Amino acid sequence: MASRTEKALLGLGIDSAAAKLLIDKGFTAGTLKAQSKSSLQELGLAEFQVENILVSARPPIPEPVVSEILFKSKWTCCICREANKAVIVHHLIPWSESRSHSADNLVLLCLDHHGEAHTVRQLSLNLTSDRIRDARARWYLEAETVDQKETERLANMIANDHRLLSIHRGAMPWSDEASIIFGNDGSIEAGLGPPESRTRRQIHNVQLTLQKDGIAQLGFATSASGSTWVILATSNDVGMLREVVWNAFWAACDAEKC
Q1: Which of 60, 127, 136, 233 has its CB 3.0 to 4.6 Å from that of 116, i.e. a possible disulfide?
Q2: Domain boundaries along the sequence of the chain
Q3: Contact (CB, 8 A) for 76 and 82
Q4: Which pTM does this prediction carry?
Q5: CATH: 1.20.140.160, 3.90.1010.20, 1.10.443.10, 3.30.70.260. Which one for 145-256?
Q6: pLDDT along the chain (258 residues), means of 10
Q7: Phi, psi of 35 (to 5 degrees)
Q8: Per-residue confidence (pLDDT) for residue 164, from 0 to 100
Q9: By C-alpha distance, which of 35, 30, 8 is closest to 19?
Q10: Strands, DSSP E only, in the chain?
């Protein structure tokens, strides 16, 4: 899983293999920006990477967006799906044209297919943005299915733990890029309640806050008993997420005047 330094380097357009080498040499995004152009070239960085580091006109891709892309892609190129290959974050519409670091404009490619995406051929089929979008959509759908099954497993696991530990709601780490937000708010008889119930309001409040903060929801599920709900989200700030779920709970309580 990626460290914050690695995600910062990926956000500068550096591929994962080069990022690891730079980190091993003690570099960070900040110390790279202090280097001269010739020094960066001597490190083996491509011209566009040197430009991304030194030219302030293109800001780095925000860390939450990098985390979302990495997690949704399972650190894997959506074209070849070979998990052992180094990857790079690619703009479907170049930054120079789109000025967009949105997740919809980004995709994870291996270095081979990143090269293909920047190659124009006259006599063969190019790896166009439309082809990449289609491959990304199919890969995300498969990965989302895996995430959803994992979220369902977590909901049942936490429901069983709840019977022993009586933890009502909170958050816990799941990986370096994601955390579990959960609530044990229902009952075996009533489940999570009707759409306007306090529990449903609480979940909605959590989801609104995640959306406002740019944190992607990777999965939502309830336990088999209906007593527990779980959101899998792209943030490793567990303290902040615990505050989010409790604020959402009290806001739901205020709306219901409980």
Answers
A1: 127
A2: 4-117, 145-256
A3: yes
A4: 0.71
A5: 3.30.70.260
A6: 82 92 91 90 87 80 90 92 94 92 96 88 71 95 90 90 71 87 76 78 94 88 89 91 95 76
A7: -85, 160
A8: 53
A9: 8
A10: 87-91, 106-110, 169-173, 179-183, 217-222, 229-233
